[in-house]
From TrEMBL:
It comes from the Bacteria. GO terms for biological process: response to oxidative stress. Signal peptide: none annotated. InterPro entries: KH_dom-like_a/b, OHR, OsmC/Ohr_fam, OsmC/Ohrsf. Belongs to the OsmC/Ohr family. It comes from Streptomyces flaveus. This is Organic hydroperoxide resistance protein. It holds the Pfam family OsmC.
């Protein structure tokens, strides 16, 4: 792959530290969620992954929508990223909830979401590695 852009971020002190990008646009406190025994202060890697995946998938949906000449510009993508024990370690699972404009019929919407799942870089990175469920609403 010939990278068009490379994001650079650094994290210190793991889940209870800080994460920041080299350009200073992102600089935030990390914290363990209360559900995992933490104090819930700060954001966590799963939230960051969910934000990135939902934004990326929405862009992919826009691309395939434009190619199909279907306006999906008002679509909303919500990513739910779960973390849990898996064997000796931990694993992730994702549900992508895609809310399409009312003007898009169910069959067309489902096809566009499936196509977006084929071109989205996050979907390509996770395919075969973690379960990703697509829900069209």
């Amino acid at each position: 792959m010939d990278a068009l852009y490379t994001a650079v971020a650094t994290a210190t002190h793991g889940r209870e530290g800080r994460a920041f990008t080299n350009d200073g646009r992102l600089d935030l406190e990390l914290g363990i969620p209360t559900e995992m025994g933490g104090n819930g202060q700060g954001t966590n890697p799963e939230q960051l992954f969910a934000a990135g995946y939902s934004a990326c998938f929405a862009s992919a949906l826009g691309l395939v929508g434009r190619q199909a000449k279907v306006d999906v510009s008002d679509a909303a993508v919500t990513a739910e990223v779960g973390i849990g024990k898996e064997g000796e370690g931990f694993g992730l699972a994702v549900t992508l909830r895609v809310e399409l404009p009312e003007s898009v019929d169910a069959e067309t919407g489902r096809k566009l979401v499936e196509q977006a799942h084929q071109v989205c870089p996050y979907s390509n990175a996770t395919r075969g590695n973690i379960p990703v469920e697509l829900v069209v609403e």
